[in-house]
Amino acid sequence: MDFPINAPIGERVRRKETQRFITGTGRYVDDLLPAGTLHVSFVRSSCAHAKIKSIDVEAARSMPGVRAVFTGKEIAQQVKPLRVGGSSVLRPVKLYPLAVEKVRYFGEPLAAVVADNRYLAEDAAEAVQVEYELLPAVIDPEAAMEPSAPPVHEDAGSNIVYKYHFATDGIDKVFQDAEVVIKERIRSHRITACPIEPRAYLAQYNKEEDSLTMWSATANPHSLRGRIADMLNFPEGKIRVIAPDVGGSFGVKIQTYQEELLLPYLSRELSRPIKWCETRVEHMRNGRHGRDQIHYIELALKKDGTMLGIRDKIIADMGSTYTVDHSIQAAALYMTGVYQIQNYAVDAFGISTNKTTHGSLRGIGKADASYILERLVDIAARELKLDPIDIRMKNFIPADAFPYRNATGALYDSGQYHLAMKRTAEIAGYEQLRKEQTELRKKGIYRGIGVALVMEPTSSSRIHATGGYASCRLRVDPSGAATVFSSMGEQGQGHETTIAQIVASQTGIPFDKITVIHGDTLPTPYGFGTGSSRSSVVLMPSAWVAGKLLRDKILGIGGRLLSVAPDRLEIGDGKVFAKENKEKSVAVMEIVRTAYGAIHLLPENMEPGLEVTGYFINPNIDYTPDDKGRMNTFSSYPYAAVVAVVDVDVETGMIKIVRYCTVHDCGNMINPQIVDTQQQGSIMQGIGAALYEELRYSEDGQLMSSTFMDYRLPSVEEVPEMALEHIITPNPFTPLGAKGAGETGMLGPPPALCSAVEDALSPLGVKIRETPLTPDRVLDLIEKAQANRAHG
Amino acid sequence: MAKTITLTVNGQSYSGEAESRTLLTHFLRDTLRLTGTHMGCVVGRCGACTVMWNGRAVKSCMVFAVQADGDEIVTVEGLAQDKRLHPLQEAFWKNDAVECGYCTPGMLMSAYGLLSKGDKPTDEQIKKAISGNLCRCTGYGNIVTAIKEAAANFTK
User: Fold this and answer.
1) Domain boundaries, chain A
2) Where is A156: in which H helix or E strand?
3) A716, A722, A746: best mutation site toward chain B, by most B Cβ within 10 Å?
């Protein structure tokens, strides 16, 4: 598709939205306080798995400022459950806003206290007495698969709530005949997104209008509206969901939550605005968790390092499964990653356990896949005594093979993996690093060089889940200023700027005169949540389509006014003019006035006004598999090559990242500044995942890491020296040529840093199959390796 | 037990009722309705609630409102003077040191606390000053660059 890249597309325009954030005038849910607002506090389960024998709320009801107390049983009689899942592969479970007969995870809400302010609500919540009958906690996902394991959901019949099988013909023969087979068990550990703004909701029922307004820190306002309507049996058209400024999401705010569904009910019952702002502890216990897959994976190779086939068994810990979660399939479809491997088989299982529900997290499923595959490739390289870059270069999909269909039918749009890896090695000075490493080892310094090339399928299309399209409505008002109504909300991605850049480039309307409205179901067209890096792949093209429709209309009117064919006209400097004769022109404002007020001058059959809606549909998507089970569910495939250098202190287990070099390809960039900043943040989140962050459960299902004291986010002190470059291989199937840009950064550090640390400690024989690489784990690994050697 | 307290916030005098357990953050946000100061963890780890208290940058979730009775507070709303952005705000904007904006007020106030000390800070001092402020979006690099740039333009 031919796309004219007019300024300001591709420019490092500074962000419109930043102005309100630096002056303290942003508007987040907790900033709103309508008159008469009451506050909620939740009573939460103190155990992972138990029958609720009784809940005594009498003491709480009589405490100061308390307006009402609700239990799960009362709510269940008043609302319809949300049926979660129910596709052919995921068995449906019922979700109520509060636990009804039993609790399924530590921290599950089971009663709600409404009071005059948040302090009083918390006081009263503490006075609620709950009597439990403990059930055995299902914590280990592998044990949970046994038929004798206690069921998390009795209705589901088994703790295996999801199954997926795929195999290419003759896969077993490939393994029988292979010269080398590498077999490993590798686990991606459980983490969570941790936006700095926790969840926050405010519901306001209007009795006179019988209507509901819900302000939510959500990344998915339109879907949330439908769910509230469904649960309360309330007309969808009378519900307005507004996501005002949202303080980060990284996937965690795209899901619908129990508390989120309860607030509209409470507001209707009490006829008062009802607000709840989550504490950090609640967020760690109740916000969706991510990763946590165990892979039993095998790689068949020739002795020269040529990869022949992969067999994998995936066991994914889905927690208490109150969500539709596609993380497992997102991993299972991409275990062959960036390599030319056409022989592949997988059996994937999603398991219910008594942990917090699993859900979206930057790089969902795909991060597990790239981490585990890259780990495996490193292990193979070590086994075959090959350089980790050489084995990759030998097996990468070559640039001229794109669009490339992988074994599962996924269609990769474009890429230059060899070039990206080569360039990253150059930036890092790879050859020199290897020489230095040898020298440093002699001095007792454990330096390691890690390599990875991670690929991130972006912009997914799943029926009724992510929709596969986006839209923008564009209106030029009679004053000549434009408003764009975007179907997707934003949580820091900078859409107000990038959409305005696109519309300005198409229509000639000045960037400063374009306002972007998002996250409000009343004025914006229907659309799905901001996730899977979809914005640049479908939303931005929909703004481009809207801009083009408006441009065509402006040129059409100009053509009629100037008696020149529209295709011979151009827009510039506030005028529409003939390409051959710039003197022949009409002011854009004149066209605007004509469109609204002098419609007898419009071309025949043209509608009055200047308002258009642009839709864009994810390209190359399959909605049903072919006869061999193959299908493509993502539209674009950005990637990044990484070379990471670390020093490991073998006395303390501390890891210092000496340098992190990466070359990233997300196709064309609408605003390279925004991409760079996202990329840096994404890399730091990946470093956190690799080295510091872990959600740990005790054997009886208590979450041991519930605060920022024991779940450690990277601070500025942990930022390594970074070298960040881009290469640009446009996505040939979208008008902007852009790929997703938000997630790839996060995928790099886990495999690259594990690779580097294993390399650093290779003289000691350390093997890394578990993460994060906290100092105590590193010391433990060193100890184990030494013990092995002693016995060995 | 509620008590009436008086604070000077951004040069203006405010009075309001505070219980002994009311956090300064909640008093600023819910009573004075100055919502630029944010709340991300309530245990002093994320720094989104950082304000200036009698000339020092502090995490306002670690202070009871009654402790600040009679004292001087500066919040993010007080940085811009006569509608002119503070050099820190300009530098944050120019260097793209902001994404979702939630940590930004705290980052700005910690940086303001550092620059208020007068000396031109080193990179290490900048990092130390914001080491108690978590940002999940930007990866910190642009924030450090912005503070460095502002330090060059800052006059106390």
Assistant:
1) 18-25+469-617, 32-135+195-249+253-286, 289-461+627-791
2) none
3) A716
Contact (CB<8Å) B36/A14: no
Write the residue in B35, B100, B138 that is nearest to A31 by C-beta. Answer: B35
Structure tokens at A583: 């003197």
Show the domain range for B99.
87-153
Q: Considering the domain A289-461+627-791 in this protein, what is its CATH number?
A: 3.30.365.10
Residues A662-697 have pLDDT tens digits of 999 999 999 999 999 999 999 999 999 999 999 999
CB contact under 8 A, A30 and B42: no
Q: Which two tokens stand for residue A321?
A: 């499964």
A381-399: average pLDDT: 98
User: In chain A, which residues have their Cβ closer than 8 Å to the Cβ of B105?
Assistant: 24
Burial A505-543 (b: 16+ CB within 10 A, else e): bbbbbebebbbbbbbbbeebbebbbbbbbbbbbbbbbbb
In angstroms, the CA A290 to CA A266 distance is 30
Amino acid, single-letter form, for residue A467:
G
User: Is residue B92 helix, strand or coil?
Assistant: helix
What was the pLDDT predicted at A161?
Answer: 87
Q: Residue A431 burial by CB count (10 A; 0-12/13-18/19+): exposed, middle or buried? A: exposed
Please give the residue of chain A at the shortest CA–CA distance from B99.
Answer: A492
First to last CA, chain A: 61
Residue A90: pLDDT band by 50, 70, 90 thresholds?
low
Q: Which residues of B touch A715 (CB under 8 A)?
A: 131-134, 140
Separation CA A743–CA A746 (nearest Å): 6
The answer to whether the beta carbons of residues A431 and A721 sit under 8 Å apart is no
Cα A367–A368–A370 angle (5° rounding)?
Answer: 65
- State which fold the A32-135+195-249+253-286 domain adopts: Aldehyde Oxidoreductase; domain 3 (3.90.1170)
Write down the mean pLDDT value for chain A.
95
Cα–Cα distance measured from residue A576 to residue A569, given in angstroms and rounded to the nearest whole number: 7
Contact A74, A222 (CB under 8 A): no
CB contact under 8 A, B43 and A708: yes
The matching CATH number, chosen from 3.40.630.30, 3.40.1030.10, 3.90.76.10, 3.30.365.10, for A18-25+469-617 is: 3.30.365.10
- Per-residue tens of pLDDT for chain B, all 156 residues: 799 999 999 999 999 999 999 999 999 999 999 999 999 999 999 999 999 999 999 999 999 999 999 999 999 999 999 889 999 999 999 999 999 999 999 999 999 999 999 889 999 999 999 999 999 999 999 999 999 999 998 755
Nearest to A22 among B93, B138, B144 (CB): B93
Which pTM value belongs to this model?
Answer: 0.97
Whether the predicted interface score ipTM is above 0.90? yes
- The reported pLDDT for the residue numbered A324 is 56
Note whether B15 and B40 are same-domain residues: yes
Residue in A192, A359, A202, A194 with CA at minimum distance from that of residue A280 = A194
Q: What is the CATH number of the domain that holds B145?
A: 1.10.150.120
- pLDDT band of residue A85 (cuts 50, 70, 90) is low
Distance CA A776, CA A782 (A): 10
Q: Which two tokens stand for residue A414?
A: 């474009």
The type of residue at A337 is G
Q: Check whether residue B70 and residue B36 sit in a common domain.
A: yes
Would you say A425 and A418 are in contact if contact means Cβ atoms under 8 Å apart?
no
Percent of chain B with pLDDT over 90: 93
Residue from A511, A520, A529, A501 nearest A674 by CA:
A501
8 A C-beta contact, residue A653 and residue A772: no
Q: Which of B44, B77, B110 is the last residue of a domain?
A: B77
Nearest to A418 by CA among A400, A399, A436, A437: A399
Query: Which amino acid makes up residue A422?
Result: K
In the numeric block, which tokens belong to residue A3? 């796309």
The reported pLDDT for the residue numbered A1 is: 41
